[in-house]
Specification:
Largest sheet: 5 strands, mixed
Helix content: 40-55%
Radius of gyration: 14 Å
Shape: globular
Number of strands: 5
Number of helices: 8
Structural class: alpha/beta
Oligomer: single chain
Distance between the termini: 33 Å
Strand content: 15-25%
Length: 145
Amino acid sequence: MDPFLDAAIAEAEKGLAEGGIPIGSVLVHQGKIIGRGHNRRVQKGSAILHGEMDALENAGRLAAKVYAESTLYTTLSPCPMCTGAILLYKIPRVVIGENSTFQGDEDLLRSRGVHLTLANDPRCIALMRRFINDKAMLWNEDIGV
């Protein structure tokens, strides 16, 4: 098991327990989590607080060099908005928990030199499948359908 992916999954589970969408993320620099978050669109009435965005926000303002040396772990393939943030801050590596329930802009990330690792973690898949089955309308709202 990967402790950083485990931390992202714990964030996703926290979001689900709060009544939100179960997607979590952590930003890791030099072997240490410097930002963690989960999708809080429901909880905060936010248009943009996806898991990756929340992790970046919680990391706080950082020097460009820190982002360029970091890895972002996310339980679900990054959507266009989160892909944009990854590219904007030049985060070079992303570990994706799963992309079978939703595949974001992975091709764009790869085309811009971001190294992607797909874990296909069964815990991530189960969380999203259960959520999508139980709350399809909320899920569709989150991804702009």
